[in-house]
Amino acid sequence: MTRIGFDVGGTKIAVGAISEDYQIIARRQIPFPTGRPYKEVARVMADLAKELTDRIDSIGIGMPGEIDNKKGLVIRAHNVQFYEVPFKDEMKNYFPDIPIHIENDANAAAFAELKLGSFKNCKTAVLLTIGTGIGGGLILDGKLFNGGMNHGVEIGHMRLDSRGPLCSCGNRGCVEALCSGSWIIREGKKAVIEYPKSMIYTRTQGNIDRVDAKLVIDCAKEEDPVAVDIFNRYIDNLSSAIASITALLDPEVIALGGGVSRAGEFLLEPLRELVRQKSFFKYPYKIVAAELGNDAGIIGSALLGEFKKEADE
Ligand SMILES: [Zn+2]
Fold it and tell me: 48 CA distance to ligand 1 centroid (A)?
């Protein structure tokens, strides 16, 4: 049994072949063919899958954005510029006899955590993938939940501050606008301009293009006051978002994935304490780093390709 999983993003297409025991046995990654029509992207992806293995039993595709996983439609995916695209049907042209499933990428990652990672044996769990934006995946009653109307679960676009910074979705003060890696970068860039004595300035030699989230977090670890201030404000934002989630769902586990989660306990420890303070329920919520890391997208898509087989046919 060989399942293929795609993790498609605005900058890359990653694909892996997954063995019977859920190991990635072959993988490839190419830059996303930006600006090309979806039919061409589908052809490139079909070729990639065929290069990986000559036996394919199922295909799963994870993509950022609003996905109708029942109809196999990409409704809105800004990062890849797909709007109302029947992507599953297009892939079916290349693999007419193989089950294909398409899913929001954070949903796919949450599904991987449920089957193999930090959500194993959980009934209620929330995944936040924190990178350039924020993706959210929700496990309810032991199953992946894609919203009551199947529109999705957009934790990144819950609103924290109606007068807050503009979000990629056009609204203001969304969780994504205040808790993503992009927020840390923006504050780091401001610091380079406003605080030439800060470590962020020294490390980047005053060049704002060199600021990334890891650099700011590293400077905070080394107790640079400017970076510590950014990091504290970041944890304040993120803990507010998570406290709201606990009020709504009272989840068993909250896992953080994506680049920012690599800060590990340096982030998680103060975050747990602030969430406890801000939550309605005063329990020490289990807030952990997602276990499957960058492979969650590939593995989750591949598993969905298999597990959703019946629903698809
Ligand atoms: Zn938003």
Answer: 33
| Local confidence band at 308 (pLDDT 50, 70, 90 cut-offs) | low
Same domain for 298 and 286, yes or no, is: no
The CATH number of the domain where 142 resides is what?
3.30.420.40
Answer yes or no: are the C-beta atoms of 145 and 153 closer than 8 Å: yes
Structure tokens at 280: 């309605």
Residue 183 and residue 131 in one domain? yes
Range of the domain at 52: 3-111+294-312
H/E stretch holding 289: strand 286-289
Query: How far is the centre of ligand 1, averaged over its atoms, from the C-alpha of 303 (Å)?
Result: 29
Q: Find tokens 């800004």 and name the residue.
A: 78
Residue 307: CB atoms within 10 Å? 17
Amino acid at 20: E
Distance of CA 18 from the midpoint of ligand 1 (Å): 34
pTM above 0.85, yes or no: yes
Contact 184, 217 (CB under 8 A): yes
Distance CA(289)–CA(121), nearest Å, equals: 17
